[in-house]
Design goal:
single chain, 56 residues, mainly alpha, 2 helices
């Protein structure tokens, strides 16, 4: 994995008493990346260069 979009320590903090496997963080990171890319495409389609919550 090259770019991190999540903070693994924060994921573990939210998980509280649960262990977090490395592949969970990797998969979550990929989902976040895809959400960002999809949001960019939606903003472009609406003629904007600003990502907004509604793009999610």
């Amino acid at each position: 994995m090259s770019d991190l979009f999540i903070v693994k320590a924060k994921v573990k903090e939210i998980a509280q008493d649960f262990n977090v496997a490395a592949d969970f963080s990797d998969a979550l990171n990929e989902k976040v990346k895809q959400l960002i890319l999809d949001s960019i495409n939606r903003a472009k389609a609406n003629g904007r260069r600003t990502l907004m919550a509604k793009d999610l």
